[in-house]
């Protein structure tokens, strides 16, 4: 029996290693992303544990604003270059990649110039201490825009080895730089230099592992497809940014930098499961959904199956994080951050909803309908703007976290409505798909309360 099991295991490994079927490619991709994403997230965990004990809460508060403003500029003219390469059937063609590279680099040059010149005015709003860190952090706009578009074709073909080294390896280099800088100069510059090094490392690695030399060879159809997709995506990044960082921007005006640092650190820890999604799961789902975008029965099945597995993975994990919020925060960040336990618990719930909203949103992008995401994002933003200030004024940091949770719940409901309309996904089939994970999470919570 042991021999038969070993034989079957060897056959399975051989199929995964050399198979060219979508399942085999996805399995190989999952292994690469788990290794790369797991290593990156482990390093992030270690980095934050070290730096919260070396740096002040004010440093984390200022850095949260630096990252939010940087993301604002990045997102304002986001045109979905990576998504366009993956989604378009001819995205690997040289003429398509040429257009993608020039559009991306041109956009980043304009953005960097505007951002650099705007830094003093932003400092008048949030404090002069933010200006110099902002100008250095804005270099990430250039590095991100100049990445080799050939790296995106790796995920299009479900080949994640090189992509994992570029994305996760580059991030890991920046994380290590931040840790070293934390001992050399324990202030905000450790965070700023590490943040910038992540983007620079990804850019350099993208050309080493996925070489690309841009030329002036273009194809009119490819340019048309690229700009058509870009028009559909335009503005979505900005709307998504406001949803993800509105709490930081508003808190930056309503509370002191130390309190903002408390919230930022609790958000960093709460977002760890979401980072797992963005580095491992999301990169697998999007190209997989894209490959079956014209086969709605198969797509519906894939949506429900992936949602089921997501619920079984994340519901127990997030429930445990919520139940043990206070000892977990103290262990990870130290006694100075004990007051972050309550916002951390509510942020965990919000991040859970965000993960499921993001996974459903992948379908809209994969089927070439980013306009649906725009409609949802606008409605989501209106709710967030109406709620954020009153919630913070009444409930403080917990109010900011609850606003995220409410808006994420609306996101899921609206996306399900559009998926029912466009791909025929039954509205009731989704709760049934995630029911196993909900049941496990409820059992863990019940056991915690009973022993409590």
Number of helices: 20
Evaluate the radius of gyration: 22 Å
Mean pLDDT, to the nearest integer, reads 85
Largest sheet: none
* Poorly predicted tracts of residues: 1-16
Q: Give me the count of strands.
A: 0
Helix content: over 70%
Could you give the distance between the termini? 44 Å
Report the structural category: mainly alpha
Principal-axes geometry comes out as globular
Into how many domains do the coordinates divide?
Answer: 2
SSE pattern, N- to C-terminal: HHHHHHHHHHHHHHHHHHHH
Please report which band the strand proportion falls in: under 5%, 5-15%, 15-25%, 25-35%, 35-45% or over 45%.
under 5%
Question: Which features would summarize this protein structure in a list?
Answer:
2 domains, globular, 452 residues, mainly alpha, 20 helices
What does this protein look like?
This protein is mostly helical and 452 residues long. It has two domains: 21-234, no CATH class; 256-452, no CATH class. The chain is built from 20 helices and no strands. The longest helix is centred in the N-terminal third of the chain and has 33 residues, at 22-54. The radius of gyration is 22 Å and the shape is globular. 47% of the residues are buried. Residues 1-16 have low confidence and may be disordered.
């Amino acid at each position: 029996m042991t021999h038969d099991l070993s034989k079957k295991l060897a056959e399975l490994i051989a199929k995964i290693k050399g198979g060219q079927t979508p399942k085999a490619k996805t399995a190989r991709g999952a292994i690469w992303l788990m290794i790369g994403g797991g290593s990156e997230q482990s390093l992030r965990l270690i980095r934050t544990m070290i730096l919260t004990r070396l740096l002040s809460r004010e440093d984390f508060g200022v850095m949260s604003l630096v990252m939010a403003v940087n993301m604002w500029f990045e997102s304002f003219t986001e045109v979905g270059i990576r998504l366009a390469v993956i989604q378009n059937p001819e995205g690997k063609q040289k003429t398509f990649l040429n257009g993608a590279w020039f559009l991306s680099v041109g956009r980043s040059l304009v953005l960097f110039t505007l951002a650099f010149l705007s830094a003093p005015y932003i400092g008048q709003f949030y404090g002069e201490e933010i200006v110099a860190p902002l100008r250095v952090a804005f270099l990430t706009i250039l590095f991100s825009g100049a990445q080799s578009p050939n790296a995106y074709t790796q995920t299009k073909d479900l080949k994640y080895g090189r992509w994992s080294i570029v994305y996760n390896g580059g991030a890991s280099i920046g994380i290590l730089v931040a840790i070293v800088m934390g001992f050399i100069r324990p202030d905000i510059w450790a965070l700023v230099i590490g943040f910038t090094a992540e983007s620079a490392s990804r850019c350099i690695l993208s050309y080493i592992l996925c070489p690309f030399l841009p030329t002036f060879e273009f194809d009119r159809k490819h340019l048309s497809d690229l700009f058509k997709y870009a028009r559909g995506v335009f503005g979505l990044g900005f709307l998504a940014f406001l949803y993800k960082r509105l709490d930081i921007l508003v808190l930056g005006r309503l509370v002191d930098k130390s309190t903002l640092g408390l919230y930022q650190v609790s958000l960093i820890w709460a977002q760890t499961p979401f980072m797992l999604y963005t580095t491992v799961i999301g990169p697998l789902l999007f190209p997989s959904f894209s490959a079956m975008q014209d086969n709605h029965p198969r797509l519906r099945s894939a949506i429900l199956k992936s949602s089921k597995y997501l619920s079984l993975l994340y519901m127990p994990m997030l429930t445990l994080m919520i139940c043990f919020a206070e000892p977990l925060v103290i262990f990870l960040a130290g006694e100075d951050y004990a007051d972050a336990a309550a916002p951390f618990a509510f942020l965990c719930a919000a991040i859970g909803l965000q993960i499921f909203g993001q996974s459903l949103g992948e379908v809209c992008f994969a089927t070439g309908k980013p306009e649906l995401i725009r409609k949802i994002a606008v409605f989501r933003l209106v709710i967030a703007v109406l709620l954020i200030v009153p919630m913070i004024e009444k409930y403080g940091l917990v109010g900011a976290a609850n606003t995220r949770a409410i808006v994420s719940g609306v996101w899921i409901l609206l996306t399900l409505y559009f998926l029912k309309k466009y791909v025929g996904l039954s509205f009731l089939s989704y709760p049934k798909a995630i029911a196993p994970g909900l049941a496990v999470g409820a059992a863990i919570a019940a056991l915690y309360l009973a022993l409590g």
